[in-house]
Amino acid sequence: MATPAHCYYCFESLAASFDGREPPSLAAIEDLWEQYEQAKELAALNNGKNGLGQQSVEDEDVLGDQDGSNKRPYPQTLQLPSVSRLQSSDSSSASTTPSSLSISSSRSDSTAMTTPGSPADGLGFQRPRLEESGYPLFVTWNTISKSGHKSLRGCIGTFEAQEISSGLRSYALTSAFDDTRFAPIPVTLLPSLSCSLTLLGSFEPCADAMDWTLGVHGLRISFIHRGRRYGATYLPDVAVEQGWTKEETVESLMRKAGYDGGSGLSRRLLRGSSASGAGKPWEEVSNFKAVRYQGLKSSATYDEWQEWREWVKSLGDGRAKLLQA
User: Fold this and answer.
1) SS3 labels along the chain
2) For residue 257, which of 74, 211, 230, 312 is within the disulfide window of CB 3.0 to 4.6 Å?
């Protein structure tokens, strides 16, 4: 599955290219991200533990006032093994910040219960790794304004299966610097960026131009017009984000491919009419083919990437050096 760790790796690759150095490995970033996510879960549970413990005391006081006894119908704390083990040395120092609940990579007995994926830890998880699998993929860069408006800044990918680490690094840079619709992304724009990764799969030929589902499928088309072959694609979220119907999506996709519409599409665009009228543009070309596919998407902003980096630096155990590869 696509995860924010993959987007962090794209950010690391882009930042490293500006600095003229090698980025850290994807494996190192995934390990640190998994520990970061688990630390946040532990912090959230610690918050819940403290809140429920306080509620138990309050409930006890109410019941005690009612019958004059010192009955204790509720425990004062929830005994969650993984949390209590972390706090056993000094419960007063427990904090709700992820950095104070950092997960050590050591294999010692004191941390074995809290390492990601440990079966003894109910919170532990080991997310599927993609290094050994090949996926078609697209990397998208957007800028986010101070008002929160998102604007496309580069999107390039491939339908050829890529080894995930090399594919991410390659297309993170290609989409940042080589999308001919935009000038190359400068280093000054880095703080305003967000990154999205879409892994593609479940490719199926469409019976016709409308044989796909909005919000579920991406669409790849090809056709021949006046002896020339055209082709283009939209990722699964594009049509929904733009508020298009399926007909509008296919017409836009044909224009993206470079089709000028011949007679029918140009007249409809000038009149402002929709594609619902007679003479569908995909019926005016030869050998129109469409393939639908699905995508696994993950996104991260610059601020989220930096927050994760600051957590890594706060560990104070040398792992921050992994980010200086």
Assistant:
1) CCCHHHHHHHHHHHHHHHHCCCCCCHHHHHHHHHHHHHHHHHHHHHHHHHHHHHHHHHHHHHHHHHHCCCCCCCCCCCCCHHHHHHHCCCHHHCCCCHHHHCCCCCCCCCCHHHCCCCCCCCCCCCCCCCCCCEEEEEEEEEEECCCCCEEEEEEEEEEEEEEHHHHHHHHHHHHHHCCCCCCCCCHHHHHHEEEEEEEEEEEEECCCCCCCCCCCCEEEEEEEECCEEEEEEECCCHHHHHCCCHHHHHHHHHHHHCCCCCCHHHHHHHHCCCCCCCCCHHHCCEEEEEEEEEEEEEEEEHHHHHHHHHHHHHCCCCHHHHHHC
2) 230
d(CA 142, CA 177): 13
The strand order across the sheet containing 150-163 reads 150-163, 134-144, 193-205, 286-301, 218-225, 228-234
What pLDDT score does 278 carry? 55
Taking the C-alpha atoms of residue 189 and residue 143, their distance in angstroms, rounded to an integer, is 8
Domain interval for residue 257: 202-263+280-295
Q: In this predicted structure, what is the pLDDT of residue 79?
A: 26
- In contact, 31 and 322? CB cutoff 8 Å: no
> How many Cβ atoms from other residues are within 10 Å of residue 292's Cβ?
18
Judge whether 228 lies within some domain.
yes
pTM: 0.70
Question: Which stretches of the chain drop beneath a pLDDT of 70?
Answer: 48-133, 262-278, 325
CA distance 54 to 113: 26
Domain CATH number, residue 227: 3.30.1490.150
Tell me which residue of 95, 5, 4, 107 sits closest to 322, measured CA to CA: 5
Q: What is the dihedral of CA 285, 291, 294, 295, to 10 degrees?
A: -70
For residue 293, count other CB atoms closer than 10 A to its CB.
21
| Residue 245 belongs to some domain of the structure | yes
In the chain, the number of structural domains is 1
